[in-house]
Design brief:
The structure is a homodimer.
Chain A lengths: L1 E6 L4 E6 L10 E10 L1 H7 L14 E2 L3 E8 L10 E4 L2 E3 L5 H4 L11 E4 L3 E2 L6 E4 L4 E3 L11 H17 L9 E5 L3 H12 L5 E6 L6 H9 L2 E4 L5 H7 L3 E6 L6 H8 E9 L8 E5 H10 L3 E4 L5 H13 L2 H7 E5 L4 H5 L7 E5 L6
Parallel strand pairs in A: 12-13, 12-15, 13-14, 15-16, 16-18, 19-20
Antiparallel strand pairs in A: 1-2, 1-4, 3-5, 3-10, 3-20, 5-6, 6-11, 7-8
Keywords (chains A, B): Carbohydrate metabolism, Metal-binding, NAD, NADP, Nucleotide-binding, Oxidoreductase, Zinc
Function (chains A, B): Catalyzes the NAD(P)(+)-dependent oxidation of D-glucose to D-gluconate via gluconolactone. Can utilize both NAD(+) and NADP(+) as electron acceptor. Is involved in the degradation of glucose through a modified Entner-Doudoroff pathway.
Cofactor (chains A, B): Zn(2+)
C-alpha cells in the first residue's frame, strides 16, 4: 500500500510503498477514506515537534485525524463496512491504569505513543490496523468529514473539564470566546455556536476583510474580534467578559491574556503548544488577584478520550453538512501532497483523500 | 458594648463603646467568645485593603474570624448557649441567586459585603447579630478554637474545587505542597496532614532553624522546604512534583511558580491577594506548554460557603487540641489590642478574647 512517511533526517515527507498491515488478534483492518492535516502535522513535517519513529524503523507514517471503513473486522465487535475514526494515543504499557481506564489523555508524558505524531505509525496510509477500543463509529452520512471528529474531540474534552470543574456551584455561563481562527478555532466556534452551552460566541483573529475565516465566523453566528483593534485586555470593556475561553493558537502569552478576558467564575482552557521559551513582562500581581478575587480557572487540555470522540461524532451528525464543507478548502490525492501541506490565509482544512468515491 | 473599630481617616484602630445590637426578626444575638486576627485584618488596620465603612457610619467594626455563643436565639432555629461561627459575606441584594443558593463566595465583586472587611460591621465586639443561615455550629469541645473554622474553610473550598475539577477522570493525588508558613499556611498543612486526601505534605518557607513554624510543620508530619535553598522550580527535582499546591502568601509570582511545582494532572489553587501591580519576566512559552502537555490546572479561590465551614468545623472536632493550641501564640483582651495586631516571626495566630472563662 501507499503511505505518507516522515523521514526525520531531512526532515522529508515522502510517499512510500509499504506492506499493507495485517491485523493481529483483537485488531481490525481499516481502509482509510481521508486524513485531515492540522498545524501539528505541518510542524511535524517541518521537524519542529514530534516525529519520533517507531522502534526499529527509519520513518514515521504520519496523520492522526482520520476516517476509514472497516475492511476486516477480524473477529472483533466491529462490522465490516462500518465507518470509524481512530483515537490518537496508545499506551507504552497496556497494563497501565490510564490504559485500562481509557484515560490515556491524562497519562503522564512518556507513558504513551501518539499515532502519526510520535513513536507509532499514524493513519495517512491506504490501510491501518487498530483495536476496536480505540475506534469510534462515525455516522455514514458524515463519512466524508469523519476526520473532524478528532479535532472536535479536543473541544469536547475542554468542555468536559470546564463544566466538571464548575459543577462545584451553580455556574451559568453565557458567552464563549475562541482565541484563533485557524482550523481548530473555526471548528470549535461552529461547535460552540450550534451547541446549547453558550448564548454568544466570539472568535479572535488578525485578518482584514474580505476574509474567508471572518465570513465563516459570521455565517455560523459568531462575532469576529480583531486583536489588532481590540486587545484581549480591552475585550471585556468592548464586549462582555467571556465565561469561557478556548485558546487554540499556542501564542505563549495567551494563557495569561485568557485569564484577563474572563468574567468572574470563568474558565479558560489552553490547548496549543508554543514552540519553546518565550519571555514576556507579565503583571503577576494583576494576574494573581484576578484569579483569586473572581474565582477564575485556567486549565491545560491535551488530547482527548473515547467519550469526547463520541460526543464529537454526535455533533458531526447534527451540524449542517454545509458548515463542515465550508471548512474543507482542499482535498488532495497522494500526488498533491505538497499542496496539501502548504499553508496560506486561504487554507482552512486540507485533506488527503484515499477514496475517490467518498471524497 | 465594647468593639474594635477602624476609622479609615488615619487609619486608626480604636476600642469604642457602642450600642449592643438588637436582633431583627429572623436574626439571633451572639455573644462573642474570641476573634482571630489574620493577615487581611492587619492590612485593613494599615489601610491597605478593604475598610469601607457601612453606609452612614464613620467606622467599621473589624474582625471576620469569630466564635461566639447564642445569647438570644430570638425565635430562630438556633438554641441559646449553642457555640457558633459566622460566615463572612452578606448579599447587597438578598434576592440575588448567589444569596438564595448560599453561594456568595462565587458572587461577582460588588454584589456582597464582607463583615469586618468591607461595607458591614464585623465580629470584633462583645456581641453581634446574624441570620442563622450564616452561622455554623462549632462543637463545644472546640469553643476556644472556633475562630479557626473560617480560615480552615478556605482550604476546604480549595479542596472542594480541586477534587470537583479532577472528578473528570480517575485522579490519584499523593502529595500536597503548601506555599507559605503563615497562620493560614500552617493551619492548612495541619488539615492536609490529618486528612485522607494526601499521603505526603510539604510546606514552603524562608526561615532559619530553630523556628517555631518549622517545628510545627515537622510536628504535624510535613516536610519543610526552604525557598532560599530549593527554588520552586527545583522542588520537583529535589522532592517529587506536587499533585496539589495551596498558595497562601499572595506573592504575585507564585501563581506561575505553583504551575511549575505541579505533577502531571496537578491542581494549584491561589488564595492570597497581592498588594497591587508587580511585573516579572515570565517564560510564558514554558508556562503555556506545561499547562497543556501535563493537563495542569490553576484555580483562584476566594472566600467560602456553608458546606466548607461545616467541613472545617468537623475537622476541628477531630484534630488534637494540642495542634490547635500550638498555633495560638497570643490571646489578648481589648487592653492588649496593639500587641494583638503586632506581627513578628514568633506570631502564629493572635486572638482577641472576649470571654475570660472560655479563653
Amino acid at each position: 500500500m501507499e503511505a505518507v512517511a516522515l523521514f526525520p533526517d531531512g526532515p522529508e515527507l515522502r510517499v512510500i510503498e509499504t506492506d499493507t498491515p495485517s491485523p493481529d488478534d483483537g485488531e481490525a483492518l481499516i481502509r482509510t477514506l481521508a486524513v485531515g492535516i492540522d498545524g501539528s502535522d505541518r510542524r511535524i513535517a517541518a521537524g519542529e515537534i514530534g516525529g519520533d519513529v517507531p522502534e526499529g524503523d527509519d520513518h514515521l507514517i504520519i496523520g492522526h485525524e482520520a476516517v476509514g471503513v472497516v475492511e476486516d473486522a477480524n473477529g472483533t465487535e466491529l462490522t465490516d463496512g462500518e465507518i470509524v475514526t481512530p483515537l490518537v494515543r496508545r499506551p507504552v504499557d497496556e497494563g497501565s491504569r490510564f490504559a485500562r481506564n481509557g484515560e490515556l489523555d491524562m497519562a503522564p508524558p512518556g507513558t504513551f505513543h501518539e499515532r502519526g505524531i510520535m513513536g507509532m505509525h499514524g493513519y495517512m496510509a491506504e490501510y491501518f490496523t487498530s483495536e476496536p477500543e480505540y475506534l469510534v463509529s462515525v455516522p455514514e452520512s458524515r463519512a466524508a468529514y469523519g476526520f473532524f471528529v478528532e479535532p472536535t474531540s479536543i473541544l469536547e474534552k475542554s468542555l468536559d473539564q470546564t463544566f466538571t470543574a464548575r459543577s462545584a456551584f451553580d455556574w451559568r455561563p453565557e458567552s464563549a470566546f475562541v482565541f484563533g481562527n485557524g482550523n481548530l478555532g473555526l471548528l470549535a466556534l461552529a461547535r460552540l455556536e450550534t451547541g446549547e452551552e453558550f448564548a454568544r460566541t466570539y472568535c479572535l483573529g488578525r485578518r482584514d476583510r474580505p476574509d474567508r475565516t471572518i465570513d465563516f465566523i459570521e455565517t455560523v453566528g459568531g462575532t469576529y474580534v480583531d486583536s489588532r483593534e481590540v486587545s484581549v485586555a480591552d475585550f471585556t470593556a468592548e464586549h462582555a467578559p467571556a465565561d469561557y475561553v478556548f485558546e487554540t493558537t499556542g501564542y505563549p502569552k495567551h494563557a495569561v491574556d485568557a485569564v484577563h478576558a474572563l468574567a468572574p467564575n470563568g474558565v479558560a482552557t489552553v490547548q496549543g503548544i508554543p514552540g519553546g521559551s518565550a519571555s514576556f513582562d507579565i503583571d503577576c500581581g494583576e494576574l494573581h488577584s484576578e484569579l483569586v478575587v473572581s474565582n477564575k480557572a485556567l486549565l491545560g487540555v491535551v488530547n482527548s478520550r473515547k467519550p469526547h470522540f463520541e460526543a464529537a461524532a454526535e455533533w458531526l451528525a447534527e451540524v449542517p453538512e454545509s458548515v463542515l464543507d465550508s471548512l474543507v478548502t482542499g482535498r488532495y490525492g497522494l500526488d498533491g501532497l505538497e499542496e496539501a501541506f502548504a499553508d496560506s490565509p486561504e487554507t482552512l482544512k486540507s485533506v488527503v483523500a484515499f477514496d475517490r468515491e467518498v471524497n
